[in-house]
Design brief:
heterodimer; A: alpha+beta; mini-chromosome maintenance (MCM) complex, domain 2; four-stranded antiparallel sheet; elongated; B: Arp2/3 complex 21 kDa subunit ARPC3; 76% helix; globular
Chain lengths: 155, 173
């Protein structure tokens, strides 16, 4: 039960309501437009455009993938069909991680890595999508379906 | 001279603490890390220059990695390369600070370059797959967000931290 506004006003009669609870952060947020100069907007738009362009370029032929490649340390160890059901232990550089498919999607579970980023990347099914586990050096990639020209566009 | 040594020491300490505390927070992807230590790099660039800020970055990464216990591991090289690339990139654009770009814009540039450098280093050191580039769009968008936030913090801190650091450095004689 703190003091009411009227009580505070009784103690500090000169206090205006607007001044009372404006932290530096709130002030800054309201002055945000003053901080941002035209160059910033241009820069943000340019980077967003770049990101969009790369995204479109890479996902031109997005489709449901059929085959996934599992590689450890850059070397391919398994080639799985997404239409089948698998649950395969893969030996990474730390320990084993399980690769599972359910007939359309593929995902990692039971990873020994500290932050479980690869598990949070979830279930993937689109051609070209990938799951990376950096500490364990495991990479799961779904092969592009129609034409494999990704290397030509990205190199 | 000793004033400046004290001041740079304060900046290194602040950056190292920010760096190690932040690395304890789990994030879904490495580039969603805010990179709060970049605030210090940016301010050092604005107040002094490239030499001092690279010095702060090197010390910050080494000390921070000593604290978190991953000195000379792959993640350490990723941090070092990313931070250096960010610092050099921001140094190239700091001259536009009052002419067309605010600290927010410069911070976004630094963040983008940091993440690009980390992606390239990941490719070179850890996973040699050209398909890593599929992660680039998400990375760019994340860079805008993190760069924006760190740039905003830098603008808020600019005057206050300057006063604190300079006053502390002057009184400590």
């Amino acid at each position: 039960m703190g003091k009411g506004v009227w009580e505070i006003k009784a103690i500090y009669p000169d206090l205006k309501e607007n001044q009372s609870n404006d932290s530096a952060f709130v002030k800054t947020m309201s002055q945000l437009k003053k901080y941002l100069v035209p160059g910033d907007y241009l820069l943000i738009v340019f980077i967003l455009f770049l990101a969009g362009a790369i995204h479109v370029l890479l996902h031109q032929n997005v489709a449901q993938g059929e085959t996934a490649i599992v590689s450890v340390n850059g070397e391919e160890v398994y080639r799985l069909s997404l239409k089948e059901i698998h649950d395969i232990p893969i030996l990474g550089t730390i320990d084993t991680v399980h690769v599972q498919t359910n007939g359309s999607q593929i995902w990692l579970h039971g990873s020994p890595c500290p932050y479980k980023i690869c598990e949070k990347m979830g279930k993937i099914h689109l051609a070209g999508e990938l799951i990376v586990c950096v500490p364990n050096r495991v990479l799961v990639r779904i092969l592009p379906q129609k034409r494999d020209d990704l290397d030509a566009t990205t190199m | 001279m000793s004033h400046k040594t004290t001041q740079i020491g304060l900046m290194v300490a602040t950056a190292a603490i920010l760096f190690s505390v932040e690395s304890l927070i789990p994030v879904p992807f490495p580039w969603f890390r805010l990179g709060l230590a970049n605030v210090i790099t940016l301010l050092a660039l604005k107040w002094w220059g490239l030499k001092e800020s690279v010095f702060i970055v090197l010390l910050r990464v080494v000390i921070g990695s000593l604290i978190t216990g991953r000195l000379l591991q792959p993640l350490f090289i990723l941090s070092l390369g990313g931070s250096l690339a960010g610092a050099l990139g921001m140094a190239g654009f700091i001259r536009f600070n009052q002419k067309g770009l605010s600290l927010i814009g410069i911070s976004i540039i630094g963040s983008v370059l940091k993440n690009i450098a980390q992606l390239i280093l990941t490719y070179l050191l850890i996973i040699s797959e050209t398909h890593l580039v599929i992660l680039a769009p998400a990375m760019l968008v994340a860079s805008i967000i993190t760069g924006f936030i760190t740039g905003l913090i830098a603008i808020i801190l600019d005057n206050r931290l300057y006063k604190t650091v300079i006053r502390f450095g002057s009184n400590s004689r």
